[in-house]
Design brief:
Layout: E1 3-10, E2 20-28, E3 40-43, H1 49-59, E4 71-74, H2 77-90, E5 103-105, H3 107-113, H4 123-126, H5 136-141, H6 145-178
Parallel strand pairs: 1-4, 4-5
Antiparallel strand pairs: 1-2, 2-3
């Protein structure tokens, strides 16, 4: 069983017209949520959107017959799901369907921590992540790829820190609830 942080960066918000710029994933320790593998960043500017989707399918365990080989762990995985499903279909590649296999989406917890409000529940609002990804398409357009990578690394660190915190706190909350 493998838990993997999964995220993407895109040129916009519409999977029918916008493209995937990066696919990033990192193995997480199953019992602590800590990062245990390297952060893999597949970059379309080094090849193409189609090639990074193919590499993701080839190099990750996502397409394994055993559904628990790659458990996607992320924040608002519906976004990744919609893009990866639409863009893999565009190229006639095997379907990437995150939501029809085991996954863990921490956005729900963020919403609950924000008193049930969606607005203000972004990862940048509840962690030390200092900005959202709105500049990524701009940086891509001007070829400032180092800023995109820097943003991805910062976002990953903040996600993992939040994930680890939840792994520590949630069992305590269960004990309190059952108390």
């Amino acid at each position: 069983m493998g838990n993997y942080y999964l995220d993407i960066e895109t040129t916009g918000l519409d999977p029918d017209v916008d493209e995937i710029l990066t696919i990033q994933y990192q193995e997480l320790e199953r019992y602590t949520g800590e990062a245990i593998g390297p952060l893999v960043i597949l970059k379309a500017w080094e090849s193409s959107e189609k090639e990074i989707i193919e590499r993701f399918l080839r190099d990750s365990n996502f397409s394994d017959a055993y559904a628990f080989s790659f458990i996607s762990v992320g924040y608002n995985l519906v976004f990744e799901h919609n893009f990866l499903k639409a863009r893999s279909a565009k190229y006639g590649l095997p379907e990437i369907d995150i939501l029809n296999k085991p996954f863990i989406d921490l956005h729900t917890i963020g919403i609950m921590m924000n008193r049930g409000e969606f607005k203000g529940s972004g990862l940048d609002k509840i962690t030390g992540k200092d900005r959202d990804g709105m500049m990524v398409p701009v940086w891509n357009k001007v070829g400032d790829y180092d800023k995109i990578v820097e943003y991805i690394e910062m976002e990953t660190r903040e996600f993992v820190k939040f994930n680890v915190w939840l792994y520590k706190r949630m069992p305590e909350l269960l004990k309190e609830w059952m108390g």
